[in-house]
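Lab notebook, bench 4. Continuing the backlog of folding jobs that were queued last week. Each job is logged with the same field layout so the records can be merged later without manual cleanup. Today's entry covers Phosphotransferase, a 151-residue chain. Filled in by technician R.K.

JOB TYPE: sequence-to-structure
TARGET: Phosphotransferase
LENGTH: 151
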Amino acid sequence: MIGRDEIAALIPHQGGMCLWDEVLAWDAGSIRLRAHNHRDSGHPLRSGERLRAVHLCEYGAQAMAVHGGLQASAAGGVAAPGVLVALRGVQLHVARLDDLPGALECEAESLAQAADSQQYAFRITHAGTLLAEGRAAVVLQAPLPPGEGLG
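JOB STATUS: finished
OUTPUT FIELD FOLLOWS
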């Protein structure tokens, strides 16, 4: 199993914005993850004391980022940062998440991969009950050359 520290090393999302706690399994075409942070009163996506179901789209998008990071790492590289450009077919089956007692789990499947883009389908469940599903598309940015960056 891959833990939170290893996940944070693979993606640009840090601190509380790193939403996944564990990678349960992954292969070239898919990934399964688990998170427990949806009940945290300090969750960065909370508003009005609630974490709304629409934020499951960010969980789905981050599942893509983790999968891309694992693939790049396995090939000896670093994943290019991406920008979420589209959500399609999203269905939310709950209104909020912060009142769910157990872990969230996600299954994300790669639908298309190109040098400059990715498309995935995601399903997020809680205790076997479907919370959200949909498809997400990301445009990948060219990585910065070594030595160039902030600072």
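OBSERVATION: The helical segments are 4-10, 56-74.
SIGNED: R.K.
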